[in-house]
Request: fold
Amino acid sequence: MTFPSRSHAMRVTSLLTLLSILACTTWRVETRPLPEVVAERSLDKLRVTLTDSTSAVLREPSLQADTLTGRATWGVVAIPVAHVAYVATHRVSAPATVGLILGSLTVAAGVGLVIFALTFDPWG
Reply:
C-alpha cells in the first residue's frame, strides 16, 4: 500500500487553504448615497439591484449625471439612477476569513499527523 508524500499533501492543503481564503467575501448592501459609494477609490465592482428586482454586477462603475455606468458580463451598461433600488459592494468578511484560516490550519495539522503516523517507521 502506498501513501501520498508529505510534500504532495502539503501542496493540496495549501491550495485548499488559499481557495477558502479567497472565498471569504460577501456583498454588503450600502446605505450611503450612490455618489459616495461610486466615488470610493477601492471599488472595482458594484452589484446593482433595480426596482424590478433584476440585478447586475458592474465593473468599474461610474456615475455621470443621473446615469450609472459600468461593464457587465455582456458589455457596457448604462442604468438611470431612478431605476436603481439599491447597490451592494463586495467586501472581505473578516470573521469568515479568520474562521476558515483556523479551520484549514486544523485540517492541515490533522492531515499532517495522519500522514506522519502512517509513514513513520520507529525501527527504520
